[in-house]
Amino acid sequence: MINRLGSALVYSTYLGGSGQDGGAALALDSTGNAYVTGTTTSPNFPTVKPIQGRGPGSDSFLAVLESPTAGLPAMSLSRSTLNYGATGSIVTSPQTIEVSFTAGQAVSWTASANQPNIAVSPSSGNGRGGFQVSVTAGPSGVITVVAQASNSPQQVQVHIESVASGGPYGSFDTPSDGVAGISGAIAVTGWALDAIEVSKVDIWREPIGSELPQANGLVYIADADIVPGARPDVEAAFPISPLNYRAGWGYLMLTNGLPGSGNGTYKLHAITHSTTGLAKELGTRTITVDNTHAAKPFGSIDTPTQGGTVSGNAFVNFGWALTPNPAAIATDGSTITVVVDGVPLGHVTYNQFRSDIATLFPGLANSNGAVGFFYIDTTKLSNGLHTISWNVFDNNGRGDGIGSRYFNVFNNGGVAAREQTALAPMPAQGAIFRGRGNRNAQRLEPDANGVLKVDVQELEWIEVDLGASDGLPSGERRKARSSPGLNSEGRRVLLASRSRILG
Fold first, then answer.
1. Mean pLDDT on 494-498
2. Which of 53, 85, 350, 421 is a Cys-bridge partner for 333, taking CB atoms 3.0 to 4.6 Å apart?
3. CA triplet 419, 315, 353: central angle to 5 degrees?
């Protein structure tokens, strides 16, 4: 048997005896075992537990030849094709191929390209990992990945095209133009591609009243998230476009934050940008929002982020949920269900305080306990793209889904190692406080070497007083969190268990 690429012999053998032997058909299974049928007159034709013994004359046979690769793990590559565009010195950014093996086995692998303008880094690894592929203008080629795996070697086709960028293109898909009666969060979505690369898609709106717009005459809302794997339809429609697998973009917009507390008519704009400096408006959508008469629960999921990658057996899914007065959400979280890929996983631990939510939405039944969390064992999910949302109901029976998004799982049979950070001396003028909920904070002091190690319990918060070193008035505090990241707006937020904030 030769390998998958027809470039090398995997195994060979002799089958037969002292008579006349003839093969009639040959087939292979997924592990490389060979199945041979035919006839034989050999009295010593090799058999193992035959259904019938030898008879006179000619006999039929079915022989199974076990491949030496049987029992080896299977290798998986995240992609089999990569597309690049080049114009002058500008080329598509490096792209990553992820390598993994069944059962998370630590199998050595190598990757090599057949063209000098295609670079692979690193060129080898062990077990789960990956390599980046960068190119310069020149011929297309092939990357070959070799490992002690049942389906080795495998190839990645690298397509490089010299182009004259005509600018990005795409579509603004949701919400529908002219839609009314919106409240809470809405998905702003579409897709965008470019002959070289889309650098970002940003969402804007037209100014309301005396608002001062930016130079383009619009008010900036946010950058959309670009989510790999979210638009297979676009990938299929544009098979040779660079980065066609990450054409989809989306932003979950909380309409309560729009002018007038999210009550009125707003015109949204979606603008895509390319790495060559070109921009194109993908379209506009006019929406009418009425949060005053909203009747359903609303909120958002903070982690996982849109299109983010997670791993491990205790990933913390954070989010928050509220409902309009006079209704309330059960503080035990029994009416908030985490749904992954359409399957309910369980109920969140709810009724956790977060000051930014309490400040933004005061006076609701759950304003001081809007945050919930849930541990997800991602090792029970397949590697690849998944969906997550929360189903939230209040005590009036009103319900809605919140936070719907895509996320990726990438595990290797075990819990991913947690990133470790060395302790650093605390700034002399800084002060660190620890607290929980809205209780009084406890000031923490560094040791004799100026190092402060902070141990926090689940859902405690840490507050760092930076004094006036960053231009804030003396005594004004900035809060930080360890998960899912530092809060640039300086609000106090929640900590995941086993998390660390280091001075």
1. 32
2. 350
3. 100
Please state, in angstroms and rounded to a whole number, the distance separating the CA atoms of residues 307 and 239: 21
Phi, psi (degrees; rounded to nearest 5) at 351? 70, 40
SS3 call for 403: strand
Beta bridge partners of 301: 319
- Name the nearest CA neighbour of 277 among 165, 134, 191: 165
Looking up tokens 């899912």, which residue turns up? 484
Alpha-carbon span 130 to 196, nearest angstrom: 23
Phi then psi for residue 413, to 5 deg, are 85, 0
Q: With beta carbons less than 8 A apart as the criterion, state whether 84 and 159 touch.
A: yes
278 contact partners, CB below 8 Å, separation of at least 6: 165, 167, 168, 194
DSSP for 93-109?
PPEEEEEEEGGG---EE
- C-alpha gyration radius of the chain: 30
Three-state DSSP state, 260: helix
Cβ-contact 368, 331 below 8 angstroms:
no
Question: Which of these ranges, 162-171, 265-274, 343-352, has the smallest mean pLDDT?
Answer: 162-171
Token pair of 479 as six digits: 């809060």
Could you give the CA distance from residue 343 to residue 348 in angstroms, rounded to a whole number?
15
Indicate yes or no: pTM above 0.85: no
How do residues 421-431 score in pLDDT, each as one tens digit? 333 343 444 45
Handedness of CA 356, 359, 361, 367 (dihedral sign): positive
Q: Quick one: how far is CA 66 from the chain centroid?
A: 39
DSSP secondary structure string for all residues of 75-137: EEES-SEEEEEEETTEEPPPEEEEEEEGGG---EEEEEESSTTEEEESSEEESSEEEEEEE-S
Between CA 128 and CA 135, with CA 132 as vertex, the angle to 5 degrees is: 155
At residue 369, the 3 state secondary structure works out as: helix
Residue 257 CB coordination number (10 Å):
12
Q: Which of 269, 276, 275 is nearest to 251 (CA)?
A: 269
CA 94 and chain centroid, separation? 18
